[in-house]
Every structure is written in C-alpha cells, then in structure tokens.
Write a structure and sequence with these properties.
Helix content is about 50%, strand content about 0%. It is mainly alpha-helical and about 70 residues long.
C-alpha cells in the first residue's frame, strides 16, 4: 500500500484507519450487489463478526458486537 509522504519525507500509516477503510469498502461492495437493504446478519457476515467473536476482540467484552 502506498502512503503519501509527509513533510520531511516521513510516511505515516494508521493501520486501524486503513482497516476501517477496507471494511467500509467491503460494505459498499456488498450494498451495491444487494437488491435492497443489507440485513444485520449480512452486515455481520461482510464484516466477519463471527470470526471476531470466536477469537475475541481486544477491548470488547467477550468480543460481542454492539448489538448484543
């Protein structure tokens, strides 16, 4: 991945922001392919929520999503 250099030739990468952008892109692709609105279950599938629940997400109580 290419990151625009900052002043002084120093590149800055925010891995969390890049991951969030990638997830947003996945949601946009899924939404554009859907006939109607995405269900919560489909959104969870696209965002791989089940995978995160199995592994547990640091900082989240039991790896639960905000809807639980």
């Amino acid at each position: 991945m290419n990151v625009a250099p900052m002043r002084g030739g120093t590149a800055v990468q925010d891995h969390v922001a890049l991951a969030e952008i990638e997830l947003c892109g996945e949601l946009i692709i899924a939404a554009s392919a859907a006939a109607g609105r995405l269900s919560f279950d489909r959104i969870d599938e696209v965002l791989q929520v089940a995978d995160w629940r199995e592994r547990g997400v640091p900082g989240e109580a039991g790896g639960r999503s905000p809807r639980d």
